[in-house]
Amino acid sequence: MILNAGTLITMNDEREVREEVHVVVEDGEIIDIADGYESAEETIDARDEVVIPGLVNCHTHMYALPIRGAPLTASPESFYEALVDIWWEVDEAFTMRDARFSALGSAAEMVEGGVTAFCDNYSGPNTLPGALDAVADGVSQTPIRSMISFETTARHSEAEALEGIDENQRYIQEVEDEYDDITGHYCLHTLFTNTEDVVDECVERAIQDDRPIQIHLEEGLVDVHESIKEYGERPVPALDSMGFFEADVIAAHCVHSTERELEILAENDVKVAHNPYSNINNAVGIADVETMEELDMTIGIGDDGWDPDMFETMRSAVGIHKLKKNDPSGFDMAKALEWATIGSAEVLGMEDRIGSIEVGKRGDFVTLDLGPNPVLPESAPYYVVSAASRADVTRTVIDGKIAYSPDQGISGVDEAELESVGEASAELWDRL
């Protein structure tokens, strides 16, 4: 397959932007990038478009999809109340059918919006065991790459938490091989919803299976307060004392992490999934990404299940970090695109395969029609972040094959199945 690109934003180490080039993909792998246009039996014509690497959503919750538009009466006044009054009610109402259809619907939306890989954390304690089979079945209807897990919580009991850990290990050891690109990992909801024994068990299993653990870390102040109450110190040093960072850890949020805590995370090579839109929506605060960057931490970006448009998530990052500094030039807009591509790929340990357009990587691309204005190499990444949306996606390409286009829809997805996503959501609303 040959892709002809008018403007190619590579996101390679030099953050190179090239004009009027072609990319050659063979067996799903990029084997050449050269000047000029070429043709082949399979040619994608993006000569009048901007081509970027496939977007990578490094932290999401697909089970959030059915709640959009739901007639909920809860009016939480804190992050903890939102968990108790909304999310914990939702996840306990979930059925296997909900798990499958929310995964199908979310994966389809991501592909339509230019996302070619994601990392999900599912929570539905009443669907154990077998929950991840349902999630994987839904995702597998689309061509997207994914990492999935069950979100472990001991908010009811340690026994329930261990069932969640068992589910992750069962999927990794017994089910994962049935799918080409749907791998398993481990997830702890938070420190305050788990115990030291659960943390120890999760670390042991993750190291045994050589998989990362994703955790919501200091998203809300409740995490900090409960840690001080239970362990006499903030979450990061408490987890460090437990040996948590002996595992490969992806920390989502880190909104309330202090400079010393960030230093501990950096010393342990913990990677950060930044979720700016979610942090705005939950009114929890703004993560200190400036200190993270000074410490050379790896940062990616996720939607936390809130916004199917990763371009809006990028713009949210730009907005909050400018506003925090009260400086319209206080944040490099191109940084958001970096986080959404190669940064998120590094967070997920996939940077050798995806996240940039380079020889040797997989042929994952997004083609964008940005309208009539000229696209200049020096400003192209800024143009994408400031102006693009999922509506501008003309193709999502995975492994050199068109996974989505507006006229053809999503490869492999049955439209009748997508209609069932909404039906399942309405039934969930009735149960809630």
TrEMBL record:
Recorded GO MF terms: hydrolase activity, acting on carbon-nitrogen (but not peptide) bonds
Gene3D superfamilies: Metal-dependent hydrolases, Urease, subunit C, domain 1
Hydrolase listed as a keyword: yes
Transmembrane segments: none
One Pfam family recorded for the sequence: Amidohydro_1
InterPro entries assigned to the protein according to its UniProt record, in alphabetical order: Amidohydro-rel, Metal-dep_hydrolase_composite, Metal_Hydrolase, MTA/SAH_deaminase
Keywords (A to Z) from UniProt: Hydrolase
Domain Amidohydrolase-related: 50-402
Protein name listed in UniProt: N-ethylammeline chlorohydrolase
Organism of derivation: Natrinema saccharevitans
Classification of source organism: Archaea, Methanobacteriati, Methanobacteriota, Stenosarchaea group, Halobacteria
